[in-house]
Design a protein that fits this description.
The protein has a 7-stranded mixed sheet. Helix 5 packs parallel to helix 8. The two termini are 26 Å apart. It is α/β, with parallel strands linked by helices. It has one domain: Rossmann fold. The radius of gyration is 17 Å and the shape is globular. It binds S-adenosylmethionine (SAM). S-adenosylmethionine binds next to helix 1 and strand 2.
């Protein structure tokens, strides 16, 4: 198996790494408090979900990733690691799959699942999708299933995906977006963010975030409309090449 350390940058678990200017400090501190509270709610939800068995994704990214033997695949917000392990099986012993998740209990569960299924070419690390602890240009494919809606800066996540992909690499992401902007009350509710809807932005804003990260040709592979708490949502499955 390839050494997982080959991919690691030595910055696992970094959250708010920038130092704010004095004039902006109060606003920034308030924002950081809010971000912290939101992340705590997200972690609390998924600590519980780590022992469950119901599916947590909102699309079928693995149907579209078209993994070739020998490839290196990254699964962002891997949860219990089912899709990471699937990717590891597809890429075979000459490749590897890496799962990253914010929640300790999820990473532990994913590692346990890897041991139980005897998949040898998968690794799991704890980290934040906004600050990927990986070297640049070390993955052929990135996948993520219903995770990026939890991030406060979606464009930053896509810049990180762009950074870690090799030239010619691709991502396939499934995520929840809205038809119209969410009411401010929902946007301000950390519990709503943890439940996969408070952090959702409109489809147009989402595609703009991807484009601003440097991905030119964005393909919508699947589009499923649904209602959640009386709000129109769309589950999008998206692919783009670097
Ligand atoms: C809806 S679940 C999806 C899990 C998995 N992708 C699946 O389809 O089963 C969202 C996962 O994203 C993780 N997560 C949420 N915010 C994250 C972040 N900022 N960085 C890394 N993982 C995050 C959660 O811990 C959780 O395991």
């Amino acid at each position: 198996m390839k050494s997982l350390y080959k991919y690691i940058n030595g910055s696992i678990g970094r959250w708010n790494s920038r130092t704010p200017k004095a004039s902006n400090r109060k606003g920034t501190e308030q924002m950081q408090d809010k971000t912290k509270e939101t992340k705590q709610k997200i972690i609390a939800r998924y600590e519980t979900e780590s022992t469950g068995c119901c599916a947590l994704g909102c699309g079928n990214t693995m149907d579209f990733l078209e993994i070739m033997p020998g490839e290196d695949i990254l699964d962002l917000g891997c949860g219990r690691g089912e899709e990471t392990l699937d990717a590891a099986r597809q890429t075979g012993p000459s490749g590897m799959a890496m799962g990253l998740d914010l929640t300790t209990a999820m990473v532990e569960k994913a590692r346990q699942n890897a041991r139980d299924t005897e998949v040898q070419n998968a690794g799991f690390v704890q980290g934040d999708i906004e600050f990927l602890p990986f070297k640049s240009e070390c993955f052929d494919g990135v996948t993520s299933n219903c995770v990026i809606n939890h991030a406060s800066d979606k464009a930053r996540v896509y810049r990180e995906i762009h950074r870690v992909l090799r030239k010619g690499g691709r991502f396939v992401v499934a995520d929840a977006v809205t038809k119209v902007p969410l009411p401010q009350k929902i946007k301000d509710d950390p519990e709503a963010w943890a439940q996969c809807f408070g952090g959702a932005i409109t489809e147009a804003e989402y595609l703009e975030a991807i484009q601003s990260a440097g991905f030119d040709e964005i393909i919508i592979l699947n589009r499923r409309e649904y209602m959640k708490n009386d709000i129109d949502f769309i589950s999008l499955t998206i692919k783009a090449l670097k």
